[in-house]
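JOB MANIFEST
job_type = single_chain_structure
chain_count = 1
residues = 183
[input]
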Amino acid sequence: MSDKQQILEVYLHEYEKLKEEQAKRIGFRDNMLYVTLGVFGAILSFALSSNNNYYALLVIPWVCLILGWTYLVNDEKISAIGRYIRYTLVNKIQELTGNTDTESIFGWEIAHRKDKRRLRRKIEQLIIDEITFVLSGVIALLAFWFLVSQPPFAINILCVVELVLLIILAMEIIIYADLGVGR
């Protein structure tokens, strides 16, 4: 086996490992939505079971922040793996093989990004992410402020901190949304 063939084998093995990691991260990321909904249901069930439990609503923004950030980090790594394959790994293989047709090497990595409905789907996903991880936390805060008259000052400070952190998460979700089309 020549040096070029050995290097190509290394690149192909790297591609396989990256796709494995990407698939695992996709599964984990997608399950975060279900976990989040389940946790919301449990907290809401407890919080609304008695007037004495309304303070449990203040847990929902923290759940939104923690699970939302975990979702976002995994989503970004999924996109980063895709970018690495599309740009770095494809270029390495092109240099090694002399193939100049970018789309013929790992073509799916590029082709699925050219779908005419990709941008619409990505915007819809962005909206769903914002609703799930930001709006639900804001609604929990609003519900708390509506249901609990005159909470202690420290709790109001906590609510403001939660709201600020939710706004930061909302901005990060927008910043990391991979709305690009094509390679």
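[summary]
The chain has five helices and no strands.
The chain has a mean pLDDT of 93.
exit_status = 0
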